[in-house]
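Figure 2 data, in text form.
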Amino acid sequence: MDIAVRSGNCGVMTTAVEERLSRDRHALPGPKTPVSALFWRLLVFNAAIAIAAVAVLTLSPLTVSAQVSVAEVAVLTLGSALMLGCNALWLRATLKPLEGLTALMQRVDLLRPGARVSVTGQGDIAQLTRTFNDMLDRLEHERRASSAHALAAQEAERQRIARELHDEIGQGLTAALLGLKRTVDQAPESLRPDLQAVQEMVRGTLDEVGQVARRLRPGVLEDLGLRSAMHALAVDFERASQIPVEVVVDSSLPDLSTEAELVVYRIAQEGLTNVARHSDATRASLSLTEFGLAAQLKITDDGRGISGSTEGAGIRGMRERAVLIGAELALGGAPKGGTELRLTVPIA
């Protein structure tokens, strides 16, 4: 029975808010294209006015003298160039904030909240920047709310499935195992080896069902707390993957909220699952320590590291959970090779 449980994978819960933001972001051109185009349109327009003014003053009879001298042409040209240069500097300073705003629109991601554009001045562009920052605040709030509802529903479904595995499938397999035991005791000697083999298969399936139920519903987290759950998670991981794990849990770690503890446990579970599936590692380490005014979960391995910039559903699921409790998730190369996952959870 091969049942794979991706504990932290929320299946990339794409909300209507994220879809709308994604469509708007992809519809935009390059970061500097609209700003540069506007800048050059205004500059060319002003240059055309200046050239027209020079032409009028030079060619019309309304000049300083009837015969235009070289000195007058030089003065007019220099004055126009100075006017154009001052105009260009003013336009560049005025439109500069739009470049930062456009660049932020290109890279904004609701799973990495907090990115904002600094507001300077009181003009129209400053008002546009403030409006965009307010829009990001609303979108991030809606994203957290929708993620909270989706993750709560997911945890409730996990608990329901775990109860059904334990109460129905587990009890059915236990009854079958007891029946096989009585049959083995009464069977002829020639049939006992085959019956005992079936008995061991049923016992193995029962153990696997129990492991799946425990991964779906971490009873050790509810009963013994986060520290014991981290040790139990590492033991289960070693038994399933044959990869040794070094565990360091700070005994003086301040208590986290129930929601934060569940997020830390699920992300640790998903992180170790990724180590077993993708890293080809021979060793791993898991630590949960106090880090300033935060608790930091760190999972490292000596595997092949991360390749490419595309994040899979499992990593995005971890980011979903981190955003829910205001935590910061970082994933990259480990100092000595391999992969390092860091989750920094602020302590209230």
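Caption note: The two ends are 43 Å apart (CA to CA).
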